Amino acid sequence: MGTSTPKQFLKLNEKPILMHTVERLFDFDNNAHFIIALPFSEFDYWHQLCKNHNFELSHQLSKGGVNRFESVKNALNKVTEKSIVCIHDGVRPLVKKDVITRCINTAKKTGCAIPVLPIEESIREVSEQSSRVVDRNKYKCVQTPQCFSSELILKAYQQDYKSMFTDDASVVESMGINMSLVEGNKENIKITTPEDLVMAEFLLKQFD
Asked: What span, in angstroms and rounded, lies between the C-alpha atoms of 84 and 30?
């Protein structure tokens, strides 16, 4: 992002991105138990932001780890009852409610579900010597929330960390579980660049 401020705290339409994300999920189910993983060093800053923006939605903080795997594992320690666990990127404030519904309903049936989108552009596999076109129909872009039965995800995160664990689905799949795929939404971008932030500001103004 080219800024010293962590991206989840950057302002999107005058409010930190993370607050938009939590509000989106809260609007979907205000009875859910919300756990936010943040570096411990950012806890006080987050509390101050909540005070400044009158952000009073009920949530619990969890100490982040050195990578995504450790952060999620720490947060899962606060899951105390049988449930569907939805793990969502804090910088994806534009997920649609019907996507969340599809993920949760599918996870209730199969134990796991992740939202995906088709790849619309041509893609190539690149090696040191050359590159070759590959069939884009065999690949999907993966989004969040990634949803699992609590029993499944808690068991998966008892494993030791591996570099192949790029998201929660990859952790579960390493146990030989087939992942259920559901349709995501294009607006559900992960805000990682200044251009993404501009796009999100535009999309948020016309979001339902």
From this structure: 15
